[in-house]
């Protein structure tokens, strides 16, 4: 295994998918490579958290 250079689908920046990250993904059973750079992944996660995942509280 070796580091891979991927392109973020949100911002278009290139980022490195390291061997360590690839091993982590394999351990977790993930079959797809990340589509977003770490910054966009963090932003997406934060926006999902603040929106309650689409559910409204009563």
Automatic annotation (TrEMBL):
Matching Pfam families: zf_Tbcl
Domain Probable zinc-binding as annotated: residue spans: 2-48
InterPro entries per record: Zn-bnd_dom_prob
Name assigned to this protein: Probable zinc-binding domain-containing protein
Organism: Ruminiclostridium cellobioparum subsp. termitidis CT1112
């Amino acid at each position: 295994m070796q580091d891979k250079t991927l392109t973020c689908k949100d911002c278009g920046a290139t980022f490195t998918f390291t061997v360590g990250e690839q091993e982590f993904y394999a351990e977790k059973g993930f079959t797809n490579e990340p589509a977003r750079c770490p910054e966009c992944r963090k932003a997406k996660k934060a926006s999902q958290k603040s929106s309650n995942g689409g559910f409204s509280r009563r």
